[in-house]
């Protein structure tokens, strides 16, 4: 413990925190014994270091390593946003110090590793503490998985049946109302059909594939345009001199020489939201059906039980010759400026790759994804992290880490949190399938700050992410 006390030498006043720590440690041996005092000292030092980093961030620039790179311990967002580490956040950190736990369950293994002494007994005791911590987190993760993440099979089946009923009604209506509209067969998709939906069965996607004439339309990658947006595409009208406007059914949705996903959605919105008598259909199906307004896409809300709601996204889809899937979902931050851009969807390919990796080694990647998705769904501060972002982060982590056994879930979960912190610090999360695509490009700087702060703080108490307001 001498190393702990020695840290006070030569430091300026820290509002009494160091004095309180020294007094606590000096009396710990009398009450807890040598072993207990060591455990408390390590835990206290870990929390004190987190406190020091937090209170120093807004008033001092990010610490730099000798090489000029920012230290991972001091992320670049610290102090970059007025909403990060404000007075309320510092008060929260101060309150947490007043209720300092005396067990190791609430502390992240890396903090313990940095704080441990060099003696043989200290190393053995720290290894034991780390093992206990991993076991505790492992148990809580699987308990969370069973109680909060997994959706009962009956609930999933009922939601799928409701989605299928809606799909059938839309198919009948569109074929009857516009028989000349060139569409392929509609189908249902999404995490509800991949067994990757979490918490509640409340979302499905109705894919509506459009048919385009190959000699009249061509695709242009977003990075090859002046907009330079990888992951988005333009669909350009070709051969207008030989096939004038009107030669293609979808010419009516052309804006500035390109097929506009916004115009396509407006066509379907007039039909789906304005022409279909949903109250009458709902009474026949014993559902309550209504369009969601406003919505970035065309979405139907289906109440199929008193306490059960299902949201069905109506997504026009283009499938390119190379297999790329483009959906009519606008760019979140620049919908007006990029209204002609079609979004490339990686969900099917990402999910297939994730499952293939798990099948090869009996891994826990899908379980880790579902746990993290549930954490983000139940914690409003993390709601901006999407399934695609989490899936790519796990796939990237799989390239570096080989142990994905069921027993390694806790380690991989912590590692995933750390990797997300690193990606947020860099402001870039490469798509695992196409690295030039930045999956964080639609987050605002403030959202990056808040996500980074929340995840960074969770590293000292990962179990806190599992304690949601709805877990009682």
TrEMBL record:
<protein>
    <recommendedName>
        <fullName>Mitochondrial elongation factor 1</fullName>
    </recommendedName>
</protein>
<dbReference type="Pfam" id="PF21297">
    <property type="entry name" value="MID51-like_C"/>
</dbReference>
<dbReference type="Pfam" id="PF20266">
    <property type="entry name" value="Mab-21_C"/>
</dbReference>
<dbReference type="GO" id="GO:0005741">
    <property type="term" value="C:mitochondrial outer membrane"/>
</dbReference>
<dbReference type="GO" id="GO:0007005">
    <property type="term" value="P:mitochondrion organization"/>
</dbReference>
<dbReference type="InterPro" id="IPR024810">
    <property type="entry name" value="MAB21L/cGLR"/>
</dbReference>
<dbReference type="InterPro" id="IPR046906">
    <property type="entry name" value="Mab-21_HhH/H2TH-like"/>
</dbReference>
<keyword id="KW-0812">Transmembrane</keyword>
<feature type="domain" description="Mab-21-like HhH/H2TH-like">
    <location>
        <begin position="364"/>
        <end position="451"/>
    </location>
</feature>
<keyword id="KW-0472">Membrane</keyword>
<dbReference type="GO" id="GO:0090141">
    <property type="term" value="P:positive regulation of mitochondrial fission"/>
</dbReference>
<keyword id="KW-0496">Mitochondrion</keyword>
<dbReference type="InterPro" id="IPR049097">
    <property type="entry name" value="MID51-like_C"/>
</dbReference>
<keyword id="KW-0597">Phosphoprotein</keyword>
<feature type="domain" description="Mitochondrial dynamics protein MID51-like C-terminal">
    <location>
        <begin position="155"/>
        <end position="350"/>
    </location>
</feature>
<keyword id="KW-1000">Mitochondrion outer membrane</keyword>
<feature type="region of interest" description="Disordered">
    <location>
        <begin position="57"/>
        <end position="80"/>
    </location>
</feature>
<feature type="transmembrane region" description="Helical">
    <location>
        <begin position="30"/>
        <end position="47"/>
    </location>
</feature>
<dbReference type="InterPro" id="IPR045909">
    <property type="entry name" value="MID49/MID51"/>
</dbReference>
<keyword id="KW-0547">Nucleotide-binding</keyword>
<keyword id="KW-1133">Transmembrane helix</keyword>
<dbReference type="GO" id="GO:0000166">
    <property type="term" value="F:nucleotide binding"/>
</dbReference>
């Amino acid at each position: 413990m001498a190393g702990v006390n020695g840290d006070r030498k030569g430091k300026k006043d820290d509002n009494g925190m160091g004095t309180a720590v020294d007094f606590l440690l000096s009396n710990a041996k009398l009450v807890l014994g040598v072993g207990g005092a060591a455990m408390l000292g390590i835990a206290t030092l870990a929390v004190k270091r987190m406190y020091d980093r937090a209170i120093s961030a807004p008033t001092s620039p990010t610490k730099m390593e000798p090489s000029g790179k920012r230290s991972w311990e001091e992320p670049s967002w610290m102090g970059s946003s007025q909403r990060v580490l404000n007075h309320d956040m510092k008060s929260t950190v101060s309150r947490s110090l007043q209720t300092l736990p005396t067990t190791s369950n609430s502390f992240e293994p890396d903090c313990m590793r940095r704080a441990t002494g060099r003696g043989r007994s200290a190393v053995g005791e720290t290894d034991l503490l780390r093992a206990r911590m991993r076991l505790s987190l492992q148990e809580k993760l699987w308990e969370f998985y069973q109680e909060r993440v997994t959706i009962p099979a009956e609930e999933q089946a009922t939601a799928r049946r409701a989605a299928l009923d809606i799909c059938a009604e839309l198919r009948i209506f569109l074929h009857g109302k516009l028989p000349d509209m060139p569409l392929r067969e509609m189908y249902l998709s999404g995490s509800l059909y991949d067994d990757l939906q979490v918490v509640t069965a409340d979302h499905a996607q109705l894919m509506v594939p459009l048919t385009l004439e190959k000699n009249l339309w061509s695709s242009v990658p977003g990075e090859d345009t002046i907009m330079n947006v990888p992951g988005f595409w333009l669909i350009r009208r070709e051969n207008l001199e030989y096939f004038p406007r009107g030669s293609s059914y979808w010419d009516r949705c052309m804006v500035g020489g390109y097929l506009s996903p916004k115009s396509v959605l407006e066509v379907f919105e007039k039909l789906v939201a304005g022409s279909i008598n949903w109250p009458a259909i709902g009474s026949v199906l014993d559902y309550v059906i209504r369009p969601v307004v406003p919505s970035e896409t065309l979405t139907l809300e289906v109440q199929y039980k008193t306490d059960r709601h299902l949201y069905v996204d109506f997504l026009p889809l283009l499938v390119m010759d190379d297999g790329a899937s483009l959906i009519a979902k606008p760019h979140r931050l620049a919908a007006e400026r990029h209204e002609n851009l079609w979004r490339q969807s990686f969900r099917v390919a990402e999910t297939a790759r994730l499952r293939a990796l798990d099948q090869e080694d009996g891994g826990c990647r899908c379980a880790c994804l579902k746990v993290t998705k549930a954490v983000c769904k139940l914690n409003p501060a993390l709601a901006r992290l999407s399934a695609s972002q989490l899936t790519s982060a796990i796939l990237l982590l799989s390239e570096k880490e080989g142990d994905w056994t069921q027993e390694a879930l806790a380690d991989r979960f912590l590692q995933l949190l750390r990797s997300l912190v690193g990606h947020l610090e860099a402001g870039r999360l490469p798509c695992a399938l196409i690295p030039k695509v930045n999956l964080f490009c639609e987050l605002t700087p403030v959202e990056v700050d808040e996500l980074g702060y929340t995840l960074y703080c969770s590293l000292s108490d990962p179990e806190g992410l599992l304690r949601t307001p709805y877990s009682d």
